[in-house]
Design goal:
alpha/beta; six-stranded parallel sheet; Rossmann fold; 707 residues; globular; 17 strands; seven-stranded parallel sheet; binds adenosine-5'-diphosphate
């Protein structure tokens, strides 16, 4: 059975090996055992039920919490050639019935449904004579009120399963591993003597860091600027701040959008899609964003505020780097974050026992922010792992290259000023007094007569406030709760004022960019974007970044080599292989790269060896017989873009093609001008210079004609 599972893994998903834990989980399901898998976000849970679904007789019902993402999940599967569909309230009754009858005909192996659907009597009768082999409950922690996304409708799953004519195998998947949640999943979902698998929680490719005492806005802006081409999520605690941060990034020329529950459903969908499709590479969002999002090329997740507990943090941060490529998880901490979280707990309607549990978890979150030890060790031990090494070499503690700067004098001046102000004011007024501001309030309060007035003239008010924040983060000062926090002195101040104890500030060295420039990778991304626009599928559904990265390192030049790349399965090879191969060959030729792979020209020979005419030559043959490219794409079941690329490939190989037939005469001059203006490396910038009716094919034809 496992051998068959491996075959499916390669054929559909394009992967050679299972990741840690996947094999055991799949085996357990195939042995018809109820199975409960706890794996961190991005570890590859979905594959653990998708592979068995392909092998079991009957269909697999996947219960997934978010309707808005089902289409995306199903598109991803269909694009790999896995027969899957979804049924939810976005479909008409007729379409629902149509899909069910297609399931009955054996057209689909997986059906995605939302838990709410299970309550409907109509649905139960619709599927009553379907053979359901496996029920996979995704995000199973939603069944537990201890989990962070409790969904009452998850409680109805057992009743639904019970009324099925045959008991299916039940499998449950979550990233939440607390004891309460574990117990609830097993008992509330009525798992029968389940095999429980808890894979390691480590995500090796993620770099964790906590940043304290920095001006958050400045830090964020610098960081995003440095990584302006990368895909990232910025989590912010409140809607208001989401709006203002997003605006700030946009004003700085960064390509950001936003998401929070206060937006209309259409706006949310639009912004989410813009992010999924890489039209906006940055999304600023509250924690309403992200559950079920499996965009695999997220390179960084920044938490602008500390979340309420480690479970929420690890789940949100874990949305970075699902493709296994190096990615960063940065938490910007300020003591005010804790006050906000405490306020939310206080305002909640939880029972006292639950509230005290929430406080405890919040404290553990704060401990993470202050730990002087390895951050990864802290996380893994929090989730119950044992024998964790002390140094992971991939977190801000283990890679601390910051320098210490002596700020004792500044600290003493600030402390004295606060003493003079009798600990009655906030950081703004303190900074104004130290700066020597002539602000009305400062003068009205007579602060200009204080001995500390103007003793930090050489600093800006903002710089003084930043130092105050650092002193708060390091426990010298504290802030009272409420809208206008007052700065208070802590005990740690005494040795500094009395005995001249030193105060230091950590200064981070300038961060490097997350990834090095790689021009083939950029070109492949462009190509993926073009296909994505054409097929209306998010780019990562075409290929994840990791697949494009591997292509741009290995330079596969023919179909067998391309199939060896992780993430290229048979279906995708057939659909997209030609286009990617053409791009890689062009690049290799242009740069004069010698590769270990078969040289480009021999590709044709390889095909000859197998006795098959290369795909682009078949297209050419049909074209020469008088078929249009549209006809050819229909007849050969390839996309129009693929047929067009075949023609370009033929032209590049020196075959006689009349490129003028594809260049609208009235635009030729304009296209040439655009190429001169923005260069011929990337297609999109050229397209943006031109009227919308000029398509990519015309641009490629011009590029090819004028080489
Ligand atoms: P989870 O549901 O656990 O958060 P996913 O199932 O979305 O994670 O998987 C995360 C990413 O890992 C996906 O892009 C998936 O294709 C990839 N992946 C899963 N299993 C493997 C594997 N065996 N080899 C390589 N990549 C894998």
């Amino acid at each position: 059975m496992l051998q068959k599972a491996r075959t499916m893994l390669k054929k559909y998903f394009g992967y050679d090996d299972f990741r840690k834990g996947q094999e055991d989980i799949i085996q357990s399901i195939l042995e018809r055992q109820d199975t409960f898998a706890i794996m961190p976000t991005g570890a590859g849970k979905s594959l653990c039920y998708q592979v068995p679904a392909l092998l079991l007789d009957g269909v697999t019902l996947v219960i997934s919490p978010l309707i808005s993402l089902m289409k995306d999940q199903v598109d991803t599967l269909q694009n790999m050639g896995v027969p899957a569909t979804f049924i939810n309230s976005s479909l008409s009754f007729a379409e629902t019935q149509n899909r069910i009858s297609q399931v009955k005909e054996g057209k689909y192996k997986l059906i995605y449904v939302a838990p709410e659907r299970l309550d409907s009597a109509g649905f139960a009768s619709l599927i009553s004579n379907l053979q359901i082999a496996l029920v996979a409950v995704d995000e199973a922690h939603c069944v537990s009120q201890w989990g962070h996304d409790f969904r009452p409708s998850y409680r109805h799953i057992p009743a639904f399963i019970k009324q099925l004519p045959q008991k299916p195998i039940i499998s449950a998947f979550t990233a939440t591993a607390t004891e309460e949640v574990k117990k609830d999943v097993v008992s509330l979902l009525t798992l029968n003597k389940p095999n429980i698998y808890i894979t390691g929680f480590n995500r090796e490719n993620l770099f964790f860091s906590v940043v304290r005492g920095e001006n958050k806005r400045d830090f964020l802006l610098n960081y995003v600027r440095t990584n302006r081409d990368q895909v990232g999520i910025i989590y912010v605690a409140t809607r208001k701040e989401v709006e203002s941060i997003c605006k700030g990034l946009q004003q700085a020329g960064l390509n950001a959008t936003l998401y929070h529950a206060g937006l209309s459903a259409e706006e949310r969908k639009e912004n989410q899609d813009a992010f999924l499709f890489d039209n906006n590479n940055i999304i600023v969002a509250t924690n309403a964003f992200g559950m079920g999002i499996d965009k695999s090329n997220v390179r960084f997740v920044v938490h602008y505020n500390s979340p309420k507990n480690m479970e929420a943090y690890y789940q949100e941060a874990g949305r970075a780097g699902r493709d296994g490529e190096p990615s960063e998880c940065i938490l910007l901490f300020a003591p005010q974050d804790v006050s906000l979280q405490k306020f939310m707990i206080e305002q909640s309607v939880f029972a006292p026992e639950r509230k005290s549990n929430e406080y405890k978890k919040l404290q553990e979150m704060v401990d993470y922010c202050y730990t002087p030890n390895c951050l990864r060790k802290f996380i893994l031990e929090y989730f119950g792992e044992e024998n964790v090494t002390d140094h992971c070499a991939n977190c801000s503690t283990c890679n601390d290259d910051s320098e210490l700067m002596d700020i004792t004098i500044e600290a003493q001046k600030i402390f004295s000023c606060i003493v003079r102000l009798k600990e009655r004011f906030g950081s703004t007024l303190i900074a104004q007094v130290l700066k020597g501001s002539k602000n009305k309030k400062v003068l009205a309060l007579g602060c200009d007569r204080l001995s500390t007035y103007g003793i930090m003239k050489e600093y800006t008010e903002k710089e003084i406030k930043d130092i105050i924040n650092i002193l708060v983060a390091d426990g010298y000062l504290s802030l009272t709760a409420g809208q206008y926090p007052v700065v208070r002195l802590e005990e740690k101040v005494i040795p500094v004022l009395k005995n001249g104890a030193k105060v230091y500030q950590k200064v981070q060295k300038k961060k490097e960019k997350l990834t090095k420039d790689n021009s083939l990778f950029e070109l492949l991304k462009e190509l993926r974007k073009d296909i994505s626009t054409e097929e209306n599928l998010p780019p990562y559904v075409i290929f994840p970044d990791s697949t494009l990265q591997e292509m741009s390192k290995i330079y596969p030049l023919d179909a067998p080599s391309l199939l060896k790349i992780k993430g290229v399965g048979e279906n995708k090879l057939q659909k997209y292989g030609d286009q990617f191969l053409t791009q890689i060959r062009m690049y290799v030729e242009e740069k004069g790269i010698t590769t270990k792979e078969v040289p480009a020209k021999e590709t044709t020979n390889v095909s000859k060896k197998t006795g098959k005419t290369p795909s682009h030559l078949i297209t050419l043959e049909l074209y020469q017989k008088g078929l249009t490219l549209e006809d050819i794409s229909q007849q050969r079941e390839i996309t129009l873009a693929t047929a067009q690329n075949h023609i370009i490939q033929c032209a590049l190989e020196g075959l006689a093609i009349d490129l003028d037939a594809f260049i609208p005469q009235q635009y030729e001059e304009q296209i040439l001008k655009a190429i001169k203006k923005v260069g011929g490396e990337k297609l999109r910038p050229i397209k943006e210079e031109l009227p919308p009716e000029v398509d990519y094919f015309a641009i490629k034809a011009v590029l090819c004609k004028y080489e």
